[in-house]
Each structure stands twice: as structure tokens, then as C-alpha cells.
Design goal:
alpha/beta; 23% strand; single chain; 9 strands; nine-stranded mixed β-sheet
Length: 278
């Protein structure tokens, strides 16, 4: 089941990346680009291809409150829009990592980073259920409409808590379902690759983060995507007293070739079309 979900998602975002590299956007209706959720100033900072490949349901940079010198990890970095914006905000003493599982998206992100002249970025290939970074190695974890695509969401939450440093934080945008909707009712509203069928409910998302020890969890609705399913801003923090987590086997044993500053990595995709990718 996990491999099936990964393959469905990979195919969807590989196609999107190839479309952007051929000069077409990810969505049929230009009014629905994920890029429309960014300010004009933010879009002007980036290569056109990074903007065209924006497939999110929100703007995590607007809520992550990034600071000079911080280390930021973007889960499902896609074409790199949030990584490149983060890299500018953390400056030369900071670092922005982008993790994705799709070779085509990683190739696009690498091209965009080169065009933007970004030198403090690193692309990682892998799944967000097994992040190829050491424990307690990043200050901030962001993602844009990606948690709903994960095949094993408890593993994603465990990995987020593992890689965060004490007092580290998350700033995530995702599609979240009203608690009144069953899993079957969510599936009726859209596909898994379209960021709908795999969405957690509000209570499931909150419980998942709290179960791994994250505190001050908040979920704030941004806008409704489909009936009783919303684009939501998710924030939480790791306790400053939390001990560094032990490395998870799958992440600790990740092939050293999984990380590269100049080569493609595998993306954990972003969503797209304001979270209703269909």
C-alpha cells in the first residue's frame, strides 16, 4: 500500500516537473497556481520556473518566521520555491534543505537554484517518512501541502520531531478535513495525489504532533478548498528541554549519496492548484 501511494504521487509530480521544464505550468487554470499564494515581491525574487512549479496550498514562508543563520528543512520541496525563499531569509550563515522523492522535481529545483545563484541550499532525495538528516540538526521544518500525500503520517511526525533541535519549530501549510468527515467522505471529494483523499482531520493532525512531543500546536484555517476541507496553517514547537532524539534506523542508515548540493534528489511533492489538484 505504501509503495502504491508513493508511486501514484511520484507519477503526478514527475509529470508536473516535466511540464514546467518544457515551458508549461502545472495547472490548466492560471488563476489556481499555488504561486498565487505568494506575494508579488516573493515571486519576483525567484526564477520563473520555480514560480510555475509552485503546487502548494499556502505559503509556509509567511508563517515560519525565519531568522538569519537558521537551518530550515522543506518537506516535499518540489521545484524549490520555498527552499529558495528560505535561503534568502536565513542568509549566508544559514542553510536551506529541500527533500523530495521525485528525480524530475529535484532536477528542476537544482536548475532553479543555479539560476537564482543560491549557494546555501542542499537537495536531498528521499521520503518524508525517513528524512536523511541527523537528529536535532534543523531549527525549522516547513512543508507546503505535503503531509496529506504521505503514506505513513505517524512516521512523518516522528521524523519531524527527531530532526528538530530543542526549541525548534514547524510552519506547515496542509489540507485538513473537518472532524465530521470520515475517511471515505474525504476520498469522495478528491484523489490522493490531488491532496484530498489522504488529508488528516483536525483532531488527527493535532494528536499526531502531540504524540511525538511537540507543543503549542495550533491549526488555523486559511481558506476552504472543497466542502469541509481546508487549507490550514499548522504551527508547533519542540520543547527547549527535549533531549536530542536517537537516530531512526532508516534515516541514520541513509545512503550518503542521498544528499547533494548540486545534483537531483527525490522529492516529496507539493500539492498544487490551491490544494485541489484533482
Amino acid at each position: 500500500m505504501t509503495s502504491d501511494i508513493h508511486e501514484v504521487v511520484r507519477e503526478r509530480y514527475a509529470e508536473a516537473a516535466l511540464g514546467v521544464m518544457s515551458g508549461t505550468s502545472c495547472c490548466n487554470d492560471s488563476d489556481n497556481y499555488g504561486s498565487e499564494l505568494y506575494t508579488a515581491l516573493e515571486r519576483d525574487e525567484l526564477p520563473d520556473a520555480a514560480v510555475m512549479a509552485s503546487l502548494g496550498c499556502g505559503n509556509p514562508i509567511a508563517v515560519a518566521d525565519l531568522h538569519e543563520g537558521e537551518r530550515v528543512l522543506d518537506l516535499g520541496s518540489g521545484g524549490g520555491i520555498d527552499v529558495l525563499l528560505s535561503a534568502r531569509r536565513v542568509g549566508p550563515t544559514g542553510r536551506a534543505f529541500g527533500l523530495d522523492m521525485t528525480d524530475e522535481m529535484l532536477a528542476l529545483a537544482q536548475r532553479n537554484a543555479a539560476e537564482a545563484g543560491a549557494t546555501n541550499v542542499e537537495w536531498l532525495k528521499g521520503h518524508i517518512e525517513a528524512i536523511p538528516l541527523p537528529a536535532a540538526s534543523v531549527d525549522v521544518v516547513i512543508s507546503n501541502c505535503v503531509v496529506n500525500l504521505a503514506a505513513d503520517k505517524p512516521a512523518v511526525f516522528r521524523e519531524i520531531a527527531r530532526v528538530l533541535r530543542p526549541a525548534g519549530r514547524i510552519g506547515i501549510t496542509d489540507i485538513v478535513a473537518d472532524d465530521s468527515l470520515s475517511a471515505a467522505e474525504r476520498s469522495e471529494r478528491g484523489s490522493y495525489a490531488g491532496c484530498i483523499a489522504g488529508a488528516l482531520s483536525f483532531s488527527e493532525f493535532r494528536t499526531g504532533l502531540e504524540a511525538v512531543g511537540l507543543e503549542d500546536v495550533s491549526l488555523t484555517i486559511s481558506h476552504e478548498v472543497v466542502d469541509r476541507m481546508y487549507s490550514v496553517i499548522v504551527k508547533a514547537r519542540k520543547s527547549s528541554a527535549a533531549p536530542a532524539a536517537a537516530s531512526v534506523g532508516s534515516a541514520a542508515s541513509a545512503d550518503s549519496s542521498a544528499s547533494t548540493e548540486s545534483g537531483p534528489a527525490a522529492p516529496a511533492p507539493s500539492c498544487g492548484c490551491n490544494g485541489a489538484c484533482g
